[in-house]
From TrEMBL:
Residues 7-81 form the Fanconi anemia complex subunit FancL WD-repeat containing domain. Residues 288-353 form the FANCL C-terminal domain. GO terms for cellular component: Fanconi anaemia nuclear complex. GO terms for molecular function: ubiquitin protein ligase activity. This is RING-type domain-containing protein. InterPro entries: Fancl (IPR026848), FANCL_C (IPR026850), FANCL_d2 (IPR043898), FANCL_d3 (IPR044037), FANCL_d3_sf (IPR043003), FancL_WD-rpt_cont_dom (IPR019162), UBQ-conjugating_enzyme/RWD (IPR016135), Znf_RING/FYVE/PHD (IPR013083). Signal peptide: none annotated. Residues 93-182, 185-280 form the FANCL UBC-like domain. GO terms for biological process: interstrand cross-link repair; protein monoubiquitination.
Length: 357
């Protein structure tokens, strides 16, 4: 590190340059009172002052207590060599200009949030029906030679095509094209949310392709939609007492061939099983959703999925609640991993599988 040189024989006035962070900075040291030659002051450019800002009180104290300026300059050199030059400096990443250009091409109004270092970016897009979708981008150090990390909520994984030197604009164009693929699926799910009572998940997001819909009388329908062909007949599985499920299953077997790609999922289901689906607002009068043992709907992430087969009862239970209940009763029979006992409500025969852990 270069040091300022004395400009007089008394060593009370120094002027020169110091090397800090790979750059030379001019620095002057002179007495505040020319007559007394005491209370020295330091003058330097604002860049060096910024680098020294955390150490200014220490430097001021050392300058006031030193016997001569040579000792102070030696301490300054030690501070810069061993502390400041070894402290990581927060510079903007090398891809900063490229990111700014990309965001300008995409449109600044699309930005939902951005980190101070431009490393994490959230962009907001609207689909054809004004639904809001968030595209999360995590830029790597090698951008744009290396693809950024992308995450979003779509029914299928979104993996954009990337070539070295690519741009975020290309990613966004591929994303908006992907949004167009799922309009039918999202329109159908929105209709189900409005017109039905969706048991699971409680709040479907844009990646959801599996729904459990209440059919009333403690019976439900689980559908699994193919996101690439959402207008085709989905996988259907009825849950409930054997007597109720058997009737619905028979209607399904008779009507599934009439599934129409011109109708929505709700319209097809209603026509296929001939049942008017209860709405969420009707839940208090249409069906009981609480477990008959713990009197709760959710047990951790589980909801009641065991049903008494007695049609006049149809009480529902969490699998774990019913399993523990039957295990607590002396004399309950067990065969091939199944417990056989009585419904806690009506005493009708009921059984539950012992799931492997």
């Amino acid at each position: 590190m270069n040091l300022p040189i004395a400009l007089n024989s008394l060593g009370t006035l120094y002027d020169g340059f110091v090397l800090c962070g790979g750059r030379s900075h001019r620095i002057q040291i002179y007495p505040a009172n020319k007559k007394e030659k005491t209370n020295y002051k330091i003058s330097c450019d604002w860049k060096l002052r910024h680098k020294l800002k955390d150490y200014l009180p220490l430097l001021k104290e050392r300058l006031e207590s030193c016997n001569n300026l040579d000792g102070f300059l030696s301490d300054l050199r030690t501070l810069i060599d061993n502390v400041i030059d070894h402290t990581p400096v927060n510079h903007f990443p090398k891809y900063y200009d490229v990111i700014c250009k990309d965001l300008e091409d995409i449109g600044w109004e699309k930005i939902k949030s951005i980190s101070p270092q431009f490393r994490k970016i959230e962009l907001e897009f609207k689909d054809a029906n004004e639904r809001t979708h968030i595209l999360r981008i995590n830029v790597t150090d090698n951008y744009p030679q290396e693809s950024p990390e992308i995450s979003t909520e779509l029914p299928c994984p979104f993996i954009p095509l990337w070539v070295p030197g690519g741009s975020l604009l290309s990613v966004c164009e591929q994303f908006t094209t992907s949004l167009e693929m799922y309009q039918y699926l999202w329109d159908s799910v929105d209709e189900l949310k409005r017109e039905c009572w969706i048991l699971e998940p409680e709040h479907p997001n844009y990646s959801c392709t599996s729904l459990r819909i209440s059919l009333g009388k403690n019976c439900s329908l689980k559908i699994q939609v193919n996101p690439l062909q959402p207008d085709e007949l989905p996988e259907c599985h009825f849950l409930g007492s054997n007597s109720v499920v058997a009737k619905l299953q028979a209607k399904y077997q008779q009507g599934y061939e009439d599934w129409s790609e011109n109708l929505s999922i709700l319209q097809n289901i209603t026509a296929m099983i001939g049942v008017e689906l209860p709405k969420r607002k009707d839940r208090d009068t249409e069906t009981n959703i609480q477990c008959g043992i713990c009197y709760c709907y959710r047990l951790g992430t589980d909801i009641p999925n065991e049903v008494c087969n007695e049609e006049k009862c149809n009480q529902i239970y969490h699998h774990q609640c019913l399993l523990e209940w039957l295990r607590s009763i002396p004399g309950v029979k067990q065969s091939f991993g199944v417990l056989f006992g009585e419904c806690p409500y009506c005493c009708a025969a009921i059984n539950v599988k012992i799931l492997a852990t």
